[in-house]
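Students often ask why we bother encoding 3D structure as a string. The short answer is that it lets us treat folding as translation between two languages. Here is a chain of 88 residues written in the first language.
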Amino acid sequence: MQAQWTLQDAKNKFSEVVNAACAGTPQVVTKRGQPAVVVLSTDSYNHLLKQGAKGTASFKDLLLAMPQDEDMEMDSSRFELNLREVQF
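And here it is in the second language, the structure alphabet:
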């Protein structure tokens, strides 16, 4: 669970903030009651960078990666519709 510090407390106890982050617990620092920054260990930060570098597949890539069922025949012909008569 991440800890939350006010900016003033984080300044006064910066060593504690850093030690907790190095131990693997992200530390949230708030400014005027709103989360402003997160202090992370370098291991956690590098892990996030690697995850971001992997990227995500585009929608097109996901569609093209769908398994193909060779037994399923795709009928590309159009359906024949019976149109109703309209009087003008």
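Translate back mentally: The domain at 1-44 is CATH 3.40.1620.10 (YefM-like fold). Keep this in mind for the problem set.
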